[in-house]
Amino acid sequence: MPINTNKQFKNKWNTARFQLHSGQARCPVRATLHSTGLDLFASENVLVSPRSRAVVGTDVSMQPPSGCYGRIASRSGLALTSGINIGAGVIDADYRGEIYIIMFNHSSIAYEVSVFIAIYGIYHNIGVNRSTNRTAHF
User: Fold this and answer.
1) At 73, is the secondary structure helix, strand, or coil?
2) Domains of the chain, each with CATH number or no CATH
3) Which of 8, 48, 68, 131 is a Cys-bridge partner for 111, taking CB atoms 3.0 to 4.6 Å apart?
4) CA atoms within 13 A on the CB side of 66
5) Is the distance from CB of 38 to CB of 125 less than 8 angstroms?
6) CB 117 within 8 Å of CB 99
């Protein structure tokens, strides 16, 4: 059952809508004025074993702005210090289910994801060039 069905993030270029599905869910936020993307937060504690992967829930769904899709990307500091990377990070423009994060642990030490850990998410604008039927990036 949705907790909040109309939370919006706005900047001067576009608007994304987020739906929070539990009390553990946090709306993605821009950490600083010049942050490229929004911080996305885990809604559960998960242990990522060494040299393995795990799925982490967020209890958040999104509606990207028109002409955009969502993309989850690794945080460079987390990748460098803990060997954690993100896999399969594309959120299609028409996907409205919960956002799950696939985390890969490339280190020899287990990594504990805590509730509200910030995981990086960004948007990319895409458009279709109809004359050649190719995707054009703006």
Assistant:
1) coil
2) 4-137 (2.70.40.10)
3) 48
4) 0
5) no
6) no
